[in-house]
Amino acid sequence: MAMTYADDPVSDPRFRPQRYTSEREAFGKAANIAWRSAPPGSEDQLIASKMQNAYAVAIRAEVRRQYSSLKEYAQTAGVDYQRLTKMLRGEAIMRLEDIASAHRHLGITISVPGQVGLDPRPGPVGLGSGLRDRGGDRGAR
Q1: Residues 54 and 103 in one domain
Q2: Which segments of the chain does DSSP mark as H helices, in order?
Q3: How many helices (H) and strands (E) does the chain have?
Q4: Are 16 and 64 part of one and the same domain?
Q5: Which range marks the domain in which residue 79 is found?
Q6: Is the same domain home to 100 and 126?
Q7: pLDDT digits (tens, 9 = 90+) for 85-98
Q8: Are residues 98 and 51 in the same domain?
Q9: Cβ–Cβ under 8 Å, residues 48 and 55
Q10: Do residues 115 and 49 share a domain?
């Protein structure tokens, strides 16, 4: 018997980001959507949901600009199409690997104030290519 998304403990999220909005159908499609209040103890999940929505909107926009479809992007990026669509709808949690893939294949960037920012331009060589130090010496604090 084949394992489904619901049976896979790795894919089954601890929470579903779209549940934190009152506009579930707009999750990942609109930047400005209405958010629910976070129940006590789940404030980080609300913040993560808002962050995921912002990334999902950016990913969809770049996929529309650079590819003919989400399926083509998924195939090119080597990601599971079903998981990609669930993630973009907020039904699955976006992982750091998803953000890295969007950075690498779509040029979507993220910056962490005062730390390291990601630059879509390829770096010289090696694992650090694309990582640029923004803000000077990280050790001087």
Answers
A1: yes
A2: 43-66, 70-77, 81-88, 96-106
A3: 4, 2
A4: yes
A5: 10-108
A6: no
A7: 999 999 999 999 99
A8: yes
A9: no
A10: no
Burial class (CB in 10 A: 0-12, 13-18, 19+), 32: exposed
pLDDT tens string, the chain, 141 residues long: the values are 343 334 444 444 589 999 999 999 999 999 999 999 988 989 999 999 999 999 999 999 999 999 999 999 999 999 999 999 999 999 999 999 999 999 999 999 876 565 444 444 444 332 233 333 333 333 443
Rounded Cα distance between 43 and 92, Å, is 18
Closest CA to 80 of 68, 64, 92: 92
What is the number of domains present in the chain?
Answer: 2
Strand partners, 111: 117
Q: Are residues 99 and 116 in the same domain?
A: no
Q: Are residues 41 and 69 in the same domain?
A: yes
Q: In Å, what is the CA distance from 30 to each residue of 23, 53, 55, 89, 128?
A: 10, 8, 11, 11, 33
18 and 61 both lie in a single domain: yes
DSSP sequence for 25-59:
GGTTT-SS--BPPPPTT-HHHHHHHHHHHHHHHHH
